Amino acid sequence: MKTEVTTKTALDGRGQKRKAETTVRASNRTKKAAISYGEGDAEESASDLEETPKPKAKGRATKKVKVAETKVEAEVDEDGDTKVKTVKRKTKSKASKKETDLAPLQQRTVDTKLRVGAHVSIAGGVQHSISNVLQIGANAFALFLKSQRKWDNPPLEPENAALFIDGCKKHGIEVGDCCLPHGSYLVNLAHPEAARKKQAYDSFLDDLTRCHTLGIRLYNFHPGNSNATTREEGIRLIAEHINTAHKDPATGSVIPVLETMASLGNTIGGTFKDIAEIINHVDDKDRVGVCIDTCHVFAAGYDLRTPEAYAETMTKFDEVIGLKYLKALHMNDSKAPFNSNRDLHAQIGTGYLGLRAFHNIVNDERLHGLPMVLETPIDATDANGKKFEDKGVWAREIKILEQLVGMGVESDEFKKLESDLQEAGKQERARIGEQVERKKAKAKPTKGKGKAKSKKKVETEDEEDSED
Ligand SMILES: [Zn+2]
Ligand SMILES: [Zn+2]
């Protein structure tokens, strides 16, 4: 097998650590897949590609990349010790280097009442999120603070943190109010077993610390699951971790924000009651919040589609949790029908929620100023069949959401937009809708009362649910 070796060396600005990367590329395999969906291996390379949109492990292209390319990474520290490790090559990082000056797809809207944006990539370092935010004309954003599918991550580089803070200042990005990082998928703060508990807490604390360093005030995470314990104990453990983190000065005044979840079963956070119970156990109630994920709540049985249904859901939220705890929203349409407990994000207006739901949300003045973050799928295929991320989708969706403020639902403009978007999502809605129905029917015991069973079944087959 012929190999081609390239080496690049990056010097960190303070000269504390040199990082040399050697790329070993196998030339007898495909080199074409320029975007690797493999796991990021460093803070500088953790990419939203791993989540937003979630890569579908659909076969050969992805596998080829993994087989074809490996990377040897050598870290040289100050006293000359060299640690060499072989990791999966991320061709994405190469592409991202070129993207430092991203051509804007949309300008940011001045004088908007909303803070809308998307979950952007930090490939190349956390500071690169800023150009991604500007590119899509966003006023809010989410990001991962480190690789969201790995336990071991290098610390946040002070140089990168400084560049992030400067970049926000330079571009008038009020990071304390508009940024909502997303926590790791591995962390389950409801795990009762000592070693797992510590591992989860350490990662949680590390994320909160990174937020504080970066001037970020809100931190969104999935509450956890009670697979290894009871729901009551799980809820108590999550709150206990939040309380412990609050007491650590390294977390500053960062607010942990609990995300509402789509699933029921052992998942904690699928009901407003779960969230309320966690908050009940938190001592410093000024430092805990909630993020409504529109797709998740809809899938969990909270309707948002009509003004009446929306009002009812928000009243329920206020009564059970309290509106003062609402700190942010994830703006996603749903490919799966109401109350299906499936977590399948769709582009705005194309799913079962539809444009009317988003009209209800953006015209609710109580939510103006809260970060609204798109986690909609943007994977697309070009004319040559090559997959790429179409960030133009987010740029358009941001503008749509902004335009919906004050737009009459009886206007021709609204009706046309609504029907165009519904048309665009028609096939996908039918496909997933049919899938959900089929699974329900299949899982139904002879007498037909097996909700829990039907859910389990659905989760193990067909379309994989998103995690965001
Ligand atoms: Zn979400
Ligand atoms: Zn999430």
Characterize the structure shown.
This protein folds into 2 domains: 3-93, no CATH class; 96-429, Divalent-metal-dependent TIM barrel enzymes (TIM Barrel, Alpha-Beta Barrel). It is an alpha/beta fold. The radius of gyration is 22 Å and the shape is globular. It contains 15 helices and 17 strands. Helix 7 packs across helix 8 and helix 14 crosses helix 15. The strands form 5 sheets. It has a 7-stranded parallel beta sheet with strand order 6-5-15-12-11-9-7. It has a 4-stranded antiparallel beta sheet with strand order 1-2-3-4. Strands 8-10 form a two-stranded antiparallel sheet. A hairpin with a 5-residue loop joins strand 1 (3-11) and strand 2. The chain binds zinc ion (ZN) (2 copies). The site of one zinc ion (ZN) has 5 residues, from loops. Residues 132-402 form the Xylose isomerase-like TIM barrel domain. Belongs to the AP endonuclease 2 family.
Physical arrangement of strands within the biggest beta sheet: 6-5-15-12-11-9-7
CATH A-level architecture of the largest domain: Alpha-Beta Barrel
**Structure summary, number of beta strands:** 17
Query: Helicity, in percent?
Result: 25-40%
GO cellular component, one term: nucleus
GO biological process, one term: base-excision repair
InterPro entries: AP_endonuc_2 (IPR001719), AP_endonuc_F2_Zn_BS (IPR018246), Xyl_isomerase-like_sf (IPR036237), Xyl_isomerase-like_TIM-brl (IPR013022)
Cofactor: Zn(2+)
